[in-house]
Amino acid sequence: MQLVIITCLVALALGQHLNNHELQQLVDSGFQTLDVNPKDGLLEHDELSKLFDMRDTDGNGVLSKAEFAAHTGLDFIFKDPVFNNFDSNHDGVLSKDEFVEKPFVAMNQNGDSEVSRHEFDHYYTQLLHHINQHHG
Ligand SMILES: [Ca+2]
Ligand SMILES: [Ca+2]
Ligand SMILES: [Ca+2]
């Protein structure tokens, strides 16, 4: 029993595994950074597309890891795994297709024109859970 507690404390101290509450906070902050234009509790395709253009600060048409990380609000241990998850062709940058098109389709379960908070939560919680379990 004591060993279990100590193991948990060590894991927390190293920031390796987060509990559900902490994951929920990450999901929430993730949504807040995406739902900005307009901030209406929904993610529209156009909204993500505009966000991509905004984050592409050097205007070269792709997001570098630094450009992606600048506005994520993600805990540092999640930045790389989340980036790598989106970078499906593994070339080290995110194209609009990787950052907007593919995630939008993946998140938008009922296929309408926007992603609801519920759809986002479902998608992102699963993603973070997956990373949380396979990290470290
Ligand atoms: Ca919105
Ligand atoms: Ca760029
Ligand atoms: Ca890529």
UniProtKB/TrEMBL annotation:
Record Pfam families: EF-hand_7
Spans through the membrane:
none
Is Ribosomal protein one of the keywords UniProt gives this record? no
Q: Where is the signal peptide?
A: 1-15
Q: Name one GO molecular function term.
A: calcium ion binding
Every copy of the EF-hand domain together lies at 43-78, 82-109
Keywords attached to this entry = Calcium, Signal
Protein name in UniProt: EF-hand domain-containing protein
Q: Which organism is it from?
A: Magallana gigas
Q: What is the lineage of its organism?
A: Eukaryota, Metazoa, Spiralia, Lophotrochozoa, Mollusca
